[in-house]
From TrEMBL:
<dbReference type="InterPro" id="IPR000172">
    <property type="entry name" value="GMC_OxRdtase_N"/>
</dbReference>
<dbReference type="GO" id="GO:0050660">
    <property type="term" value="F:flavin adenine dinucleotide binding"/>
</dbReference>
<dbReference type="InterPro" id="IPR051473">
    <property type="entry name" value="P2Ox-like"/>
</dbReference>
<dbReference type="Pfam" id="PF05199">
    <property type="entry name" value="GMC_oxred_C"/>
</dbReference>
<feature type="domain" description="Glucose-methanol-choline oxidoreductase N-terminal">
    <location>
        <begin position="225"/>
        <end position="298"/>
    </location>
</feature>
<keyword id="KW-0560">Oxidoreductase</keyword>
<keyword id="KW-0274">FAD</keyword>
<dbReference type="GO" id="GO:0016614">
    <property type="term" value="F:oxidoreductase activity, acting on CH-OH group of donors"/>
</dbReference>
<feature type="domain" description="Glucose-methanol-choline oxidoreductase C-terminal">
    <location>
        <begin position="368"/>
        <end position="480"/>
    </location>
</feature>
<dbReference type="InterPro" id="IPR007867">
    <property type="entry name" value="GMC_OxRtase_C"/>
</dbReference>
<keyword id="KW-0285">Flavoprotein</keyword>
<dbReference type="Pfam" id="PF00732">
    <property type="entry name" value="GMC_oxred_N"/>
</dbReference>
<protein>
    <recommendedName>
        <fullName>Choline dehydrogenase</fullName>
    </recommendedName>
</protein>
<comment type="similarity">
    <text>Belongs to the GMC oxidoreductase family.</text>
</comment>
<dbReference type="InterPro" id="IPR036188">
    <property type="entry name" value="FAD/NAD-bd_sf"/>
</dbReference>
Length: 494
């Protein structure tokens, strides 16, 4: 059993929760920190990345465990359940081997939300793409000074271990970047030209080693339990609070029913954009904006055919700008399980055009206290629909995809340009968004402290208040550094 009290408890062990722990340790060396994770530790490396497991059969087994353990409610979704969800139903668990699917009130063919949620030590840090592109000026928080935000981005890059060109020397990728630059670089600032996709990865003789939260936590994992401890397979049922002050959390071991209380001087809720508002709701912390403004970007998927020798290995990136709202990733792929047409003889190249969607108050997460999920918390459903502007933007993104495919070589024969359901990017955000003032439109302040509380913080993509197209992990990690530094500064001098 853990100590009955700690200085800081962090609910969730993903990249932003781990960033809080690492930054608090940097600025408050004597702090006692406890991290709570609902799922199991699945790798010997605490929070290691699953893509480093080269045995694909073993990796598939671990991916099931990454969803909260090998429990039958989280096996692959069945055809019957899929049809039930399309008809508007949902059950108590979203953690599915093939993803999260929740039908909306209206036409599910248009508004189906599809996504995934992790529950294991490292959270989505065990499965993320490791892309760490920087957000454009238009995507950044307007009420955080530019120099402060830029400094936080630099800290976040260090925490995640960003490599700006992880496959340097890929001549085919460099040649493609030059061709793409001729088409897209005009009028861009030097930092937003076509470039290699920055990745949280380290090159090695056998390829890239992808960074999970093992890299973010660093030496913390070797500390004694008295100063840093991860409670795996432990569920937080409630943040206990009195008069705007969090006093601790109620916890329960997975598979058990008896809860225990952990007293804490500061509480950080760092689950994800769906489960962070869920825990606040279950704790009776229900500001008007909680779960509202659910936002994500569409992904327009395009397959292209490239004729090149040697084949491309690196990932290229066309950044979003104020004038170009799309973030385009271009990467080598394989079609081993997909039948190709006879005239498809070149290298298959995958593409994702990340397309922003409008922020809408009515797009939201809804909680049902009558239907507990596997954690014993109010179950979740999604209400979401696109705006007319979203639909027009999608058509523009499709045209961009075709244009890029023709620069690569040609659109791959036999493959259509498709729009994936919203949520497919796994980048949903906005549900605990930060705001400049406490006016009912946000959940937390610019340092991610929940309005009306002196020691309760939220973390993750859910705090991002802006429209984005860029992979948000670096962004949300940067925002986490503000809250962590505020906690350390306040508590060290208290």
């Amino acid at each position: 059993m853990p100590s009955p009290s700690t200085d800081v408890v962090i609910i969730g062990s993903g990249p932003t929760g781990s960033a809080y722990a690492r930054m608090i340790r940097r600025d408050w060396p004597e702090a006692r920190i406890v991290m709570v994770e609902a799922g199991p530790q699945i790798l010997p490396e605490v929070g290691g990345h699953l893509d480093n497991v080269l045995d694909l059969e073993k990796r598939a087994e671990l991916e099931i465990l990454a969803q909260g353990g090998d429990r039958s409610p989280r096996l692959s979704i069945s055809k019957e359940e899929w049809e039930a969800r399309r008809a508007g139903g949902f059950d108590a668990s979203f953690l599915r081997r093939s993803g999260l699917y929740i039908a909306n009130e209206s036409d599910p063919s248009e508004n189906l939300f599809a996504g995934f949620s992790a529950a294991n030590v490292g959270g989505m840090g065990t499965k993320w793409s490791t892309g760490t592109p920087t957000p454009s000026e238009a995507e950044r928080v307007p009420f955080i000074p530019a120099d402060e935000f830029e400094a936080a981005i630099g800290i976040a890059e260090g925490l995640l271990g960003t490599n700006k060109d992880p496959r340097a020397g890929d001549t085919t990728a460099i040649a493609l970047r030059e061709k793409l630059g001729e088409a897209f670089n005009a009028g861009r600032s030097p930092d937003r030209t076509v470039r290699a996709m920055p990745l949280a990865a380290t090159p090695g003789p056998e390829g890239l080693r992808y960074h999970g939260t093992d890299v973010v936590l660093g030496p913390l994992v070797n500390e004694p339990a008295e100063t840093f401890q991860i409670l795996a397979e432990t569920i937080c049922r409630r943040v206990v609070h009195e008069d705007g002050h969090a006093v601790g959390v109620d916890l329960v071991r997975a598979g058990e029913t008896e809860t225990f209380f952990l007293s804490a001087g500061t509480v950080v809720v760092a689950c994800d954009s769906l489960h962070t508002p869920q825990l606040l709701f279950a704790s009776g912390i229900r500001p008007e904006a909680l779960g509202r403004n659910l936002n994500d970007h569409f992904i327009i998927s395009q397959m292209a055919e490239m004729r090149s020798d040697p084949p491309m290995r690196a990932m290229n990136w066309i950044p979003a700008t104020n004038e170009f709202p799309f973030s385009v990733t271009i990467h080598a792929t394989t079609l081993s399980s997909i039948e190709k047409t006879p005239d498809f003889t070149g290298q298959p190249v995958g593409m994702g055009v990340f397309c922003p969607t409008d922020i809408d108050w009515d797009n939201r997460v809804v909680f049902d206290e009558t239907k507990p999920d596997w954690r014993g918390l109010p179950s979740i459903s999604i209400k979401w629909k696109p705006s007319e502007a979203d639909k027009a933007r999608v058509e523009e993104a499709k045209a961009v995809a075709i244009r890029v495919a023709n620069i690569i070589g040609r659109p791959a024969p036999g493959f259509a340009t498709i729009m994936q359901p919203v949520g497919s990017s796994l980048h949903y955000q906005g549900t605990v968004r930060m705001g400049e003032k406490d006016d009912g439109t946000s959940v937390c302040d610019r340092n991610s402290r929940v309005w009306g509380f002196d020691n309760l913080y939220v973390a993750g993509n859910g705090v991002i208040p802006t429209v984005t197209a860029t992979n948000p992990t670096l962004y949300s990690t940067a925002l986490a550094t503000f809250g962590a530094r505020q906690i350390a500064a306040a508590r060290r001098t208290a």
